[in-house]
Every structure is written in structure tokens, then in C-alpha cells.
Write a structure and sequence with these properties.
pyridoxal phosphate, lyase, single chain, six-stranded mixed β-sheet, binds pyridoxal-5'-phosphate, 15 helices, Ser/Thr_Dehydratase, Rossmann fold, alpha/beta
């Protein structure tokens, strides 16, 4: 990881970039991502980029939203999953495809398996988002629910795949998956010519590291920032641990609660877990990963500027803000916007927030809709069940009426110059 930027400094450029690129693990390189883009051409949507007009005034620079929630299957995960399945040994693939996922990777893998006409079995953590499970089944996959979270589902999937010689598609720690996610970085370079900062949500780190590989190779001055929930900060915490390598010993990742970083984006010292956070689960189910990938972490250490954390209320603020602009985004997908709302200093120059998924739980969606109809945003985590409309207060940087302060209100969002033809149907 490079030194985090401060408000007084120009945007940081990783000092280790050149040597880091030479040392990138096999299979995760710019040519691999360019090859993935060719494989995915005609399969995935080149999702649109739209201007977050209402944020510009508050942050003092252009903010763009990359609409991966409009991807087929409702999230970016299709890119990596399809690429991995497409690159697999045909015999292994024909025996069946297996994955573990909280839901978005599940749909990507199910979609890819259906495209190749092979069976898919997906292990999901018990209690996973019912919409994601239903959509995964709708794509023809068999879904097995496993108690014990994503890690238990991963273990069950690995066992099942090994027993039948089937293809295991890891949700993030696989070079072909990372290369697939990295195709977003290539698209962004075309779509936002003066790109300076990209902010993405982080679970296991496949999205973050893939985009970072693409951007560092093509435009090293672009800053890449990851975002996690303060309730699920494993990647952010691991990044602050002493260096390890892909081939070295596994990183021991303590489950820490990292507080919201200050606007200066200075690296914090890790605090004791706040009592209020103990035992709570993040609303951002797609990012609730307790163990970062070894490959993704190694890449992030070399290529990523920082991974910050945001509080749960920020996710709600971001979803409400987006809903008022006509965009339906799930909590994990709203993480980058949540970070920008909380820490305006993260935005330096033309900034892109990757809206990585839109498969929102119906109960969460109902809450967001209700909040979007009021002029305020939540001050606490409504999931805890203690929020009533009278509890609401205005958020940090959220305009009290973001939509009406947006000059492009009729559409909610606007395309960047030259992008009108690239909008989704
Ligand atoms: C919507 C969404 N955003 C971000 C992420 C994080 O992706 P990664 O695990 O590659 O870090 C996920 C993971 O499932 C997700 O579903």
C-alpha cells in the first residue's frame, strides 16, 4: 500500500508501482485484463457512467457513478465469474461449476454455467438475501444454504468441488476472476478521460485489485481507494498489517473495528473495538468477508492507495441519495458513495464511485424508499430496529434535497461528454 494522501498533499502516486508491476502474480496483469475484456465482449454490458451532479457542489469536483448495478445479474460479479468459467478446462467445466457466495457471485456463476450449458451448485450462507437466492435458482443453479457465514460456505463448496472433480469458481481470490473485474478499470479509462480517483467497495478484494491492476498499468496517477463497513473491516485491517507475499505465510487478520477515517485520509492507528459495533452485522451483505484473499491482498498492498471504512448510517444515506436520483443500489454497491458522503477529501479531481450491485433486499429497499420520500437521512442503523422517522437527521455532506439541487433533475443523472451513445438500453 502506498502512503495515504492527506488534504495538504497532492494525490499520491504509489512509489512502488514500477517494481510492484514487475512482481504481479502470474495471470493478473494488464494483458490478462485486456484478454478478459475480449472474452467478455458481447457477454457483459459496458455499463454507463453518469454524473452525480448534486455532489459536485458539495465536493468541489466532478463525481461520476459507474452503473454496475445495471450489469446483467445486477452486479459486476458476472465479469469475473464468466471469465473464469470461460477459461476453464472444458472437461472440468462439464462436470459442473461450484461456488460459494452471499449472492452476487452466485448469480454470476449461475449465469455463466447456464451460458455454457453445464450444471451449477452454489453454497450460500444461511440467511442470505432471499432475492439473490431466488434469482440464482431462477438462473438454473442448485442452491445449498450453509450455516456459518461466507467462510463456511466456501469450505463446503471446496469440498463438494473436489469430491466430484468439478470447477470451483472462487468469488475473489483467483487470477481469472480478478482479471474479469479489472475490465471495469479499462472501461473507466475510456469513459472518464480525465479520471483521477476511483472508489470501490471491498469484500475479498477482487474488484479493488482488478481495477487497480488495470489503472496502475495504464494510468498510474489515478488513485484507487477501497471502502469497507466499519462492522466488516477485514481487508482494511489486513492492509495495515506487516507485509506478506502471495507465497508467504497466510496473513493473520484480526477482526477489528476500524473507525471512520478523518477527511484527511491519514492512516489511523487501530483502536479498540467500539462497544456499539460489537456483534453487529453490516447491512452491506455483499462485503461481509472476514478473510481477504491472499492474492487480492498482495495486489492491493502494491497498487492501492488506501482502504477506508464507513459507518452503517453512511450506507443508508448513500442509498437514499441514489434513490432520489432514480438509482436502485444495494448497500455494498452504495459503499463508494457512502465514503464520499462521509469523507469528501477522498475525491481528488474527476472521481468515479463504482456502484457495484443493485440486488437489494426487499425489506431494505422498502426502508430506502420510505427514507427517500422524506427530506432527511438516517442518523443510526435502521437494521437495528430502533429507527423511526422522528429519529432522522441530516447527513454530513448530503444536501437536504439532493435531487432538487441537481441541475439534471429530469434524468437524475447525466452522461459525461461523448458518452451519450453508451447508455444502457
Ligand atoms: C455489490 C458488491 N460490491 C462489492 C463487493 C466486493 O467484491 P470483492 O469481494 O471482489 O471485494 C461485492 C462482493 O460480493 C458485492 O456483491
Amino acid at each position: 500500500m502506498t502512503a495515504p494522501a492527506t488534504d495538504d498533499e497532492p494525490a499520491s502516486t504509489p512509489t512502488s508501482t514500477a517494481s510492484a508491476r514487475r512482481d504481479l502474480p502470474a495471470g493478473v496483469s494488464l494483458p490478462a485484463i485486456e484478454s478478459a475484456a475480449r472474452v467478455l465482449s458481447g457477454v457483459v454490458r459496458r455499463t454507463r457512467v453518469v454524473r452525480a451532479g448534486g455532489l459536485d457542489a458539495g465536493l468541489g469536483m466532478p463525481v461520476w457513478l459507474k452503473c454496475e448495478h445495471e450489469q446483467h445479474t445486477g452486479s459486476f460479479k458476472l465479469r469475473g465469474a464468466y471469465h473464469r468459467v470461460a477459461c476453464a478446462d472444458p472437461d472440468e467445466r462439464a462436470r459442473g461449476v461450484v461456488a460459494a457466495s452471499a449472492g452476487n457471485h452466485a448469480q454470476g456463476v449461475a449465469y455463466a454455467a447456464a451460458a455454457f450449458g453445464v450444471p451449477a451448485t452454489i453454497f450460500v450462507p444461511a440467511g442470505a438475501n432471499p432475492v439473490k437466492i431466488a434469482r440464482t435458482r431462477g438462473l438454473g443453479a442448485r442452491v445449498e444454504q450453509v450455516p456459518g457465514g461466507v467462510e463456511a460456505a466456501l469450505a463446503a463448496a471446496a469440498e463438494f468441488a473436489a469430491a466430484g472433480g468439478r470447477l470451483l469458481v472462487h468469488p475473489f481470490d483467483d487470477p481469472a476472476v480478478i482479471a474479469g473485474q479489472g475490465t471495469i478499470g479499462l472501461e473507466l479509462l475510456d469513459q472518464v478521460p480525465d479520471l483521477r480517483t476511483v472508489v470501490v467497495g471491498v469484500g475479498g478484494g477482487g474488484l479493488l485489485s482488478g481495477i487497480a491492476v488495470a489503472l496502475r498499468a495504464r494510468r498510474p496517477e489515478v488513485r484507487v481507494i477501497g471502502v469497507q463497513s466499519v462492522l466488516s473491516p477485514a481487508f482494511a485491517a489486513a492492509l495495515r498489517q506487516p507485509t506478506s507475499t502471495v507465497d508467504g505465510p497466510a496473513v493473520d487478520v484480526p477482526v477489528l473495528d476500524v473507525p471512520v477515517l478523518g477527511r484527511s485520509c491519514r492512516r489511523p492507528t487501530l483502536p479498540r473495538s467500539p462497544a456499539s459495533a460489537m456483534g453487529r452485522r453490516t447491512i452491506a451483505d455483499g462485503m461481509a468477508v472476514r478473510e481477504p484473499g491472499r492474492l487480492t491482498l498482495a495486489l492491493a498492498r502494491s497498487l492501492v492507495d488506501d482502504v477506508v471504512t464507513v459507518d452503517e448510517a453512511a450506507f443508508w444515506s448513500a442509498m437514499v441519495w441514489l434513490r432520489r436520483s432514480g438509482l436502485v443500489v444495494e448497500p455494498a454497491g452504495a459503499a463508494p458513495l457512502a465514503a464520499l458522503l462521509r469523507h469528501g477529501g477522498l475525491a481528488r479531481g474527476s472521481t468515479v464511485a463504482v456502484l457495484s450491485g443493485g440486488n437489494i433486499d426487499p425489506a431494505v429497499d422498502a426502508r430506502v424508499r420510505a427514507l427517500a420520500g422524506s427530506a432527511q437521512v438516517p442518523s443510526a442503523d435502521p437494521v437495528e430496529g430502533d429507527l423511526v422517522p422522528g429519529d432522522l437527521v441530516s447527513g454530513d455532506l448530503v444536501p437536504s434535497d439532493p435531487v432538487s439541487s441537481d441541475p439534471v433533475r429530469t434524468t437524475g443523472v447525466a452522461s459525461p461528454p461523448g458518452m451519450a451513445g453508451s447508455r444502457c438500453p
